[in-house]
Amino acid sequence: MILFKMRIIIQGILILTSVLLSPDTTVATQLPLTVSQNGYSGLTVAISNNIVENVALIQKLKDWLTAASRVLYKASKYQLYYKDVTIVLPKTWSMQSSYKKISGLKFSRAHVRIDEENPVVGKVPYVFGQTECGKPGQYMHLTTYILFAGEFAGFGEIGDVFVHEWGHLRWGLFDEYASFEEAGLESPSAFYLEDGTWKPTRCTEEVSGRNINMFTGAPCTVTEDGIPEKDCVFIADKDSSATASLMGQQNVLKMEEFCDTDESSTDSKLRHNSQAPNNQNIKCNSRSAWEVMREHDDFKGNTPGSASIDTTPDFTIEVETDQRICLLLDISGSMKKNERSSKMYTAASNFLLNMVADGTSVGVATFNNKGRIVHQMLTISSQSDRQQLVASLPTTTGGTTSIGAGLLACITALNSSSDGLEGSMIYLVTDGEESRAPYIADVQPEITTNGVIVNTLALGNESDTHLGGISRASGGQSFYYSEDEYSTVLTDVFAAAVIDTSSDTFIQIESKSFSLSSTQSFQHYITIDATVGRDTIVQISSSESNNIDISVTAPDQTIYTETNSTFGITTIKIPNIAQSGSYKVSVTTTSSIMIPAVLNVQSKVRVPGETTAILNVWLSDDTHVYGSEDTTVVYVAVLKGMAPVLKCDVVASLEGYNASTIQLHDNGIGSDSRENDGIYSAYVFSNNFKRSGRHTLKISGQNTNNRAEILKSKQKSNTFPYYSGLTTELVGNFQRVILSSEITVTNYSTTPLTDNIKPAKITTIKLKSVQLMGDTLQIVLLWKAIGDDLDVGKASEYDLRISDSFSKIKQQPEQCAKLISNIPIPKLAGSTEQHVVTIDDDSLTRYIVVRAIDDVGNKGDYSNIVSVSKLTDPAWTTEAINTVNLTGTFVSGGLAITVLLVMLILGLCLKVRLSKTNDQKKLINEKRNQKQKSGKRGSSKKHHNRYKYENRNNIV
Length: 956
Known about the structure:
Oligomer: single chain
Structural class: alpha+beta
Strand content: 25-35%
Number of helices: 15
Radius of gyration: 29 Å
Largest sheet: 7 strands, mixed
Shape: globular
Distance between the termini: 13 Å
Number of strands: 47
């Protein structure tokens, strides 16, 4: 009985995870990953420095990746496997002769990250940052618990678990099992009402199992609203004959493939259940996993390989070391324009003096028609080291532009270490278009082959268009400075550049442009929250810095006025640990003319290693065609550690000209994939831009009214994945800023834009209640309102359609009957809509969809499909019995024991089981050896770590 209860709880966790975390960074840019000859190259798995050194973990990772490679090859129809894998160890682990040293922290760019438990879902594996169907996630999160527990963790066999998460991470697939409340609307998605019964959400329909209350173990019942009780879940039979889908019940014994189309020509064991209200159907327009996968570049032009090839990856072990950076500066003649050279000099000086972490090795190179090393690599350990580097910065300009020559100079400087080039970084600042060989394209192969990361800053709109390309190819980021006198980019970009170079870097609290004169002073309030305050600096950048006075007033009214002015930057350092609270920054000048200036505030975490609120930003696309219906989406994750921060005020603004701010939302509609997951998003429309060329988004995230909360679990078990519900905790006031990578706009025109943006697709329509009223069924539908332009504003009308044919309403919804009675008038985007539909009481199943229409007739796409019928199944209509015969997968007996009791005796239960573990493992290994030779895929049977024994699915 206890084991059954534990299994039910684990099923609940899987469902919960699909809601919270399964919705393209320091989620930084991912490291490059390529496909050739059916194999992935470049897959990187990194271990967090939070993980205590354990050499056995390396072998466990090899076991997982070897198993996953076999599963992936079979499931992808022999098209893909993991050819090579790099395992990255933190710098705190011991170095061995067989390991390779790399520069810097690779963890924040790794595809798979091994870290502590997530405070929301504990040990459950998940993919962070999945947003749209077919779009990649940011990274896969695994814990040491699940790596060592393997199949015994209860989530399925190790290869299946990894490939399930790979479907999220790489191909943008969504879960095919159920989720609970979606987008805040309380209604079932674990079941759908069709043909007189509540059918479980699954793919395919051949997956057999039981409908059970996850906490009592009793058969499910319906509420007074006619819908299944909210704790009802479907538990698949361990010996179900279904072979698909890995995106659904991956812990079923024979599960080894992905679902395909729902056409009758598809093998029934692979046939997609397009009617189930799971996220795959909701987010992907009822398309199967394979329908989405075939559109991915991984499968385009790819042909199956031999079924018998060895799919064991080649493994490389790397160890992180201190970061090596080459600062590469353009000194060509065009840098004289708009004082670019002096601005670059000022920003680079501040970068070296205040931002680069101690222990970082830094070199400086320049280029015009030639590349030159002006300072060899120097490990920073003192202020004099910093000043020495600043003294080498160029002060003269002239000549043509060979960016490739500069990159080669940096390669030479970085290669002076015996540790090699892997992980080293180049920060390239340039204003020009290449005019002389070698060009970027000439040296890019050497950059990417050696694993050097290139971050670029384009000064002005004339800089070379290939900058973004080399940043993307190397796993770096590209930024843009508009040269607007009120832009804060030159301050922000260098702060963004160091965020992943050390575990103890500055956090940017605020950056703000302003003007002042003798008749107009400047005052601004900033918040230093309780998690930061160490090495806090307040800076004012201005061309008239010698004519500026600054003071900073602390919460206790202490006034700081001691400044240090160099290179156009005036700095006040708050001594010791800055107290938390609101600070007033006051700036005055005696100048009679208006002076432009920029305020910058940075601080480090109060105690090294503690978590603090961090903004992470990424874009759906880095190009935007002006006037098109396509839009760019900006995503911002607000996290404290791994916990989502809710109820923040997050806005984006385009740097370089006066533009309206763009409000981001975490409300589960339009651009936002999930409500309350800590990922805020917004569309960037054409009317936000005023010209063609490069643009940069500046993101501000703050909590100044003490509303923001972190999401976490109510309680935690140290022995197994838990499901105990969620709670929130106030996070305190804070403010942060960050830059996005650049966006390039094409086809700009001054011709007024026409309204061609339609309302967003509604993906939240649900059944709230289904009740028999005499001879009719009364159905209450809920959904979230979307906007006039996608998810902004308010639509003008709703169009609801109904049909008794699923295929017709899926393929030809406009040909279906239109509902016209009491249709609600659309509310503001994000509001909850409710509509009552009455249909005849007969045996037919009805299918309903809705779409929004704006004020000029632009029609949104039809929503996800809701099905409804009269409930006639006696399993749901009769009173549930108190006991149930749980043969095979389950045990029999009364199951009313509370979750609390399970928690208390679980440790003892697991301890008893541990004595049997070695014998079970020996049996498993014997069966593995009998079935298949190690590392080979020649057999058509299930991969070698498939095994059968009684009550397998009861193992946790």
